[in-house]
Amino acid sequence: MHKMVVHGLTLDPLTNMPIVILKDKESQRALPIWIGVFEANAILLELEKIDTPRPMTHDLLKNVIEGFKGKVKRVVVSDLKDSTYYANIEITVNNSNVKIDSRPSDAIALALRTNSPIYVTEKVIASSKIIDKADDDEKIKEWLEDLKPEDFGKYRGG
């Protein structure tokens, strides 16, 4: 498994759909995952440390987990099937480990709120379109500009 961090959010230049960019700090590879507008907003609120007057959905989930004395151990982008990414949220509660199926965008939004690590399996890395040596934003921009419309159907997932 590869430990990754959220490098940022960007917009697909053709569809204007948000893309979350996960980056492996060791290898400098980046994994783009197309997500929904609401999920992008949830991630952006946390990245920018913007407080909301009332808890948003991911804040509520964090509060429920903590209310039951649980801890988010990690989130894992675990699979890519039929052009859709899958993730798991791994929680420890009362010395038990619980794995919960999730969309990657929701898992990432929760990981950011709980300061939990984000991992991507080797299987996902091998079957995804990875940006190698994404050491700067220009490399990511070039990659996005070179995308063709037929590439989009391959990477739904949010």
Question: What this model shows, in words?
Answer:
Helix content is 33%, strand content 33%. A 7-stranded mixed beta sheet has the order 3-2-1-7-4-5-6. The longest helix is centred in the first third of the chain and has 11 residues, at 37-47. Helix 1 (37-47) runs parallel beside helix 3 (104-114) and helix 2 crosses helix 3 (104-114). Mean pLDDT is 86; it is low at 152-156. It is globular, with a radius of gyration of 15 Å. The chain is an alpha+beta fold and 158 residues long. The protein has helices spanning 37-47, 57-67, 104-114, 122-127, 137-145, 149-152; strands at residues 2-11, 18-23, 30-34, 71-81, 84-93, 96-102, 118-120. The chain has one domain (2-155): Bifunctional nuclease domain. Pfam families: BFN_dom. InterPro entries: BFN_sf, Bi_nuclease_dom. Residues 1-132 form the BFN domain. It comes from candidate division CSSED10-310 bacterium. This is Bifunctional nuclease family protein.
